[in-house]
Design goal:
about 290 residues; alpha/beta; TIM Barrel; eight-stranded parallel barrel; 12 helices; 8 strands; about 15% strand
Length: about 290
């Protein structure tokens, strides 16, 4: 599992048609684009996939389609998280894992649990899950942080908690985790722009948004960094930096969906409460996409 989750994971978008139904044809096109771009695995039903706006039937259909199209070419990770521990555990326990390698589970949002509450939440999930679990720390979305001590304790206490997707942006905290974690436990960047410095500190890769659009370029960046070829990795970092930053200026996945339309991969449709990027920002993204193609 350590080898399978090293490198570039892609938090895939869920393409929608103009009538807001799921665009499975574009989803298939996106998956092949990502696999042909040498990404190492995909994550479905994450934040980038607008999972909170999908019905249970839609979620099931999306995962089934992703597994079918991927066809064991790369691992598939599925997002199963929430702020009701028992509901998450029930979902994890009764999930059909055919073709699914691991679960990505976000820290409970809105409730603002203590560190012990966070620990107990993931302990309960780990004991219920038949597949490896990746913990997801994203304080900017959840309203609470998983500190380094809690992360390391989870890593040491539960063999099937195999990694953390760290999107706190706190490099001091990230270094503490890397310093104290078991060797088998992976620290995965949850922030595209910080992936290079995190790998330099000992992270194993990324779960990326920008790699929906630019899987080859971002996978090359990550692979160069993992192979200690930092001059090449740094050159790619600065080539991608402007567009990486711009993708999040008016919300995600609104930014990357605009770029996917510019690249003729999927339509620029999101579900409320998200809205498409402004016309001004769309034009900015067009210019950045042209620069990437040069």
């Amino acid at each position: 599992m350590k080898k399978r989750l090293t490198g570039t994971g892609v938090a895939i978008v869920t393409p929608f048609r103009n009538d807001q139904s799921i665009d499975f044809k574009s989803l298939g096109k996106l998956l092949n684009h990502i696999i042909e771009g040498n990404a190492n695995y995909v994550v479905v039903l994450g934040t980038t996939g607008e999972s909170v706006t999908l019905s249970k039937d839609e979620k099931k259909a999306v995962v089934s389609y992703v597994v079918e199209v991927v066809n064991d070419r790369i691992p598939v990770v599925v997002g199963i998280g929430g702020n009701n521990t028992q509901e998450v555990v029930d979902a994890v326990r009764h999930y059909e894992y055919d073709g699914v390698s691991a679960v990505l589970s976000v820290s409970p949002y809105y409730n603002k649990p203590s560190q012990n509450g966070i620990y107990m939440h993931f302990k309960t999930i780990a004991q219920a899950s038949p597949v490896p679990v990746i913990v997801y720390n994203v304080p900017g979305r959840t309203g609470s942080n998983i500190n380094a001590e809690t992360t390391v304790k989870l890593a040491r206490d539960f063999k099937n908690i195999v990694a953390i997707k760290e999107a706190s942006g706190n490099l001091g905290q990230i270094m503490q985790i890397i310093k104290d974690k078991p060797d088998s436990f992976l620290v995965i960047s949850g922030d595209d722009a910080l992936t290079l410095p995190m790998i330099a500190l000992g992270a194993s890769g990324v779960i990326s948004v920008v790699a929906n659009a630019y899987p080859k370029e971002f996978s090359n960046l990550v692979n160069h960094a993992l192979n200690n070829n930092f001059p090449e990795a740094t050159a790619l970092q600065y080539k991608l930096l402007n567009i990486m930053t711009a993708l999040f200026e008016e919300g995600s996945p609104s930014g990357v969906k605009a770029v996917l339309e510019i690249l003729k991969i999927a339509q620029n449709n999101v579900r409320l409460p998200l809205v498409p990027v402004s016309e001004k920002h769309y034009k900015k993204l067009q210019g950045l996409a042209r620069a990437m193609a040069e």
